[in-house]
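Here's my example:
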Amino acid sequence: MKKKQTVILGAVLVVLCILAGILYQNFKPETTDGTKEITVTVVHADQSEKDFTYHTDAEYLGEVLLKEGLIDGEDGAYGLFVTTVDGETADDTKQQWWCLTKDGESVNTGVDQTPIADGEQYELTMTEGY
């Protein structure tokens, strides 16, 4: 009886994983083909700001920022974890991290999963405290 329950549970898990994949494919953010101009504002720990404008054919923000050398980070379970922006590295002992926003609003995707479109404005802000 337990073996039958285990097989049924395994089958249910497989079906749920397939459904999750289908849902992700149907609802993931759309990308835009062609050349785009985007602006990225970096707000450093000392509150100084620096704007960077890029012209690119890339579909995702992370592609552009890595290629241009603006960011560096570590690959993790949830994608690229940005540790350094414009030469400034977040200090874990101060609970610092880089916050990504778009037009001042929170972004629900990581930098390497954020699709870009022409004319968009992004911000990378050094933030303290978890």
About this structure: Strands lie at 36-43, 49-56, 71-76, 79-85, 88-89, 96-102, 105-106, 121-128. The chain has a mean pLDDT of 89. The two ends are 47 Å apart (CA to CA). The CA atoms of residues 27 and 115 lie 13 Å apart.
